[in-house]
Write a structure and sequence with these properties.
binds zinc ion, binds (2R)-2-hydroxypentanedioic acid, Alpha-Beta Plaits, single chain, Uridine Diphospho-n-acetylenolpyruvylglucosamine Reductase, domain 3, alpha+beta, globular, five-stranded antiparallel sheet
């Protein structure tokens, strides 16, 4: 079990990063103590900001020796409290902020080696400078860091075409709990030399090692794109349209996002500069995007034809295809601002869940019935990545309702939603991870053998339990 660091250990840790590499004043450490959703408020004696993998190695060697808990921290955009220290005031925070260099970019090899503290936007910009695409796409890309994207196996709005973060990794550099460095920064597409060790650290939320750099997969940059906003009656019709577009456009569909009318209404109301170009009469809206590296792919033509046919046979209501980059950006802004609008609207109960794509309509119908029964006065706002079967089944309080009282309903609603998701063959965490938020749920819902394997890995790689204790797995087992 980790212990409280004494003054000698703290001094040694400061020495490992040198002047300018640590923070301890309450005002300076405050931003590291609360998660984005303000669910957790922790404490720490020290925030370390190493600027090289060697410094991370030194820090972990000291913490391993002295049994000090370490909480890796990225852009603090996570939804499950995975990067927030606990309330004990004994856990040291390891901010990756200063490790943000591009180490290598190889356009011919379609690979980019970048450090963990670079933001996702910086990774995308680096790829773009080499006329390549790094396709992970999230609303928080300006703040979210690559290390956090890897550690949570982030998803986002282009998973349908490119996969999740795990699918976008060729190699990793990881510092292990005892300070040894795993140098697996390969850029190989094929490497069948035993276990895929690097894969263990992806989605591990800093509980098995600290990722310091990654070799990421790049892709050809889109040279043609067509973006549309579509209004329609229900998620069943949305699935029909997805099927039609998959047949017509194959892999060119990169985004297929769904929003209920209330999400669009709240976003237009709460977020400046957002507008809905469609008639508000539709119950559901889709953001659809096709992309191709081929400038002559004629995607606008293709999308127009498919949407016209879908409108003619009654699958969809009205639709608009962006006629300019500005129009396409406005459509994206509408979708990407939904979480912010929800935050401004008041407290919300969030369920980041996935089911087989075909089960999404049932999830929405049965989940909505559950929420109406169990959270009187709540507003269901279920939106997200329909193309991946990933719904953010969220319930917001009505304006003026007492937030604390509203949130207490979560104790009843959450297990009921997770039971439903399990019945439908889904997952209780699609893309946001487990963090601290879902530790208990994972402990009692995961397959016991899988959980035993996870615990065995944790014991092997972090025998003193110093790495992000209390995240993903319960401590003390
Ligand atoms: C998104 O898809 C994010 O916009 C946030 O994953 C989801 O706020 C949420 O529940
Ligand atoms: Zn999402």
């Amino acid at each position: 079990m980790p212990r409280s660091p004494d003054s000698r250990t703290l001094a040694e840790l400061k020495g490992a990063v040198g002047a300018g590499g640590w923070l301890e004043e309450p005002a300076d450490v405050a931003p590291y103590l609360t998660d984005l959703r303000r669910l957790y408020h922790g404490a720490t004696p020290l925030v370390l900001q190493p600027n090289a993998a060697e410094q991370v190695a030194r820090i972990l060697a000291i913490c391993h020796r002295d049994r000090v808990a370490v909480v890796p921290s990225g852009g603090n955009t996570g939804y499950c409290g995975g990067a927030t220290p606990d309330e004990s005031g004994t856990q040291v925070v390891l901010s990756m902020r200063r490790m943000n260099r591009v180490r290598r970019i190889d356009a011919a090899d379609y690979s980019l080696v970048i450090e963990a503290g670079a933001t996702l936007a910086e990774a995308r910009a680096a790829a773009e400078r080499a006329d390549r695409l790094f396709p992970l796409s999230l609303g928080s890309e300006g703040t979210a860091q690559i290390g956090g994207n890897l550690s949570t196996n982030a998803g986002g709005t282009a998973v349908l075409r490119y996969g999740m973060m795990r699918d976008l990794v060729l190699g990793l550099e990881v510092v292990l709990a005892d300070g040894r460095t795993l140098d697996a920064l390969k850029s190989l597409r094929k490497d069948n030399t035993g276990y895929d060790v690097k894969s263990l650290f992806i989605g591990a939320e800093g509980t098995l090692g600290v990722i310091t750099a990654a070799c990421l997969k790049l892709f050809p940059r889109p040279a043609d794109a067509a973006t549309a906003l579509v209004g329609l009656a229900s998620p069943r019709e949305a699935l029909e349209l997805l099927g039609r577009l998959r047949t017509a456009a194959g892999d060119q569909i990169s985004t297929f996002e769904i929003m209920p009318r209330i999400a669009v209404e709240l976003t237009v109301r709460h977020v400046q500069g957002v507008a809905n170009p469609l008639d508000m009469g539709s119950a559901w809206f889709l953001l659809v995007e096709l992309t191709s590296p081929n400038a002559r792919a004629r995607l606008t033509e293709l999308l127009t034809r498919e949407l016209e046919e879908a409108a003619m046979n009654g699958t969809i209501g009205d639709a608009m295809i962006a006629a300019s980059l500005a129009q396409s950006q406005a459509m994206w802004k509408l979708r990407e601002s939904v979480p912010e609008a929800q935050r401004r609207h008041g407290a919300s109960l969030k369920h980041d869940v996935s089911v087989p794509v075909s089960a999404i309509p049932r999830l929405i119908e049965e989940g909505t019935a559950l929420a109406q029964r169990l959270v009187p006065g709540g507003e269901v706002i279920g939106y997200g990545h329909l193309g991946d079967g990933n719904l953010h089944f969220n319930v917001s309080q009505r304006p003026g309702a007492d937030a604390e009282e509203f949130l207490r309903h979560g104790k009843v609603l959450e297990p009921a939603v997770f039971d439903l998701v399990e019945r439908l063959g889904g997952s209780i965490s699609a893309e946001h991870g487990i963090g601290r938020l879902k530790v208990q749920e994972l402990a009692h819902r995961a397959d016991p053998v899988e959980l035993a394997v996870m615990r065995a890995l944790k014991r092997t790689l972090d025998p003193h339990g110093i790495l992000n204790p209390g995240k993903i797995l319960t401590t003390g087992e």
